[in-house]
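FAQ: What does the model actually see?

It sees only this:
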Amino acid sequence: MPRTLVTGVIGADTHIVGNRILSMALEDAGYRVVSLGALTPSADFIKAAVETAADAILVSSLYGQGELDCRGFRDLCVEAGLDDILLYLGGNLVVGKQPWNDVERRFLDMGFDRVFPPGARVETALAAIDAAVATRNSRCASPSRHRLRTAPLHGATPRPYSPTRPQARRPHAVGLAAVVGTSLA
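And it is asked to produce this:
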């Protein structure tokens, strides 16, 4: 059974191209991806995760307002019964040049499990997601990991390679910021 991931671009951010590329790469890696698109409120991520019994939520922000948009995100998850859900974040998260270690610490302190800097590669994100989901699921052997899940999901099988989507199969030269919400420039 494929693992389920919720992806989307948070807040008033409209940068969606890279998020779609990441979603395709995740699908090709065997994940069931629930893509919420751009302009997604925090509550919609949570609702989708509850409805699909998601293993992780991958949040993208490129327009620099991630700090405002992501405040209280983990608390919303806990309130919805998603205490153990993996929260990943990537993109251009703050306005202006700030030391990455400071930016990363701020979002980790908000409850995100992993924060990807601008320029991170798709392969890096996939490896981190694979490892975290495997580790998390080995700790949560029960099919009812989330308190709200009532039955295991029956979902799509991994899609075969398609020559019309080669970007999801070859190493990407774009950074994770591009992959999770920016243009490919």
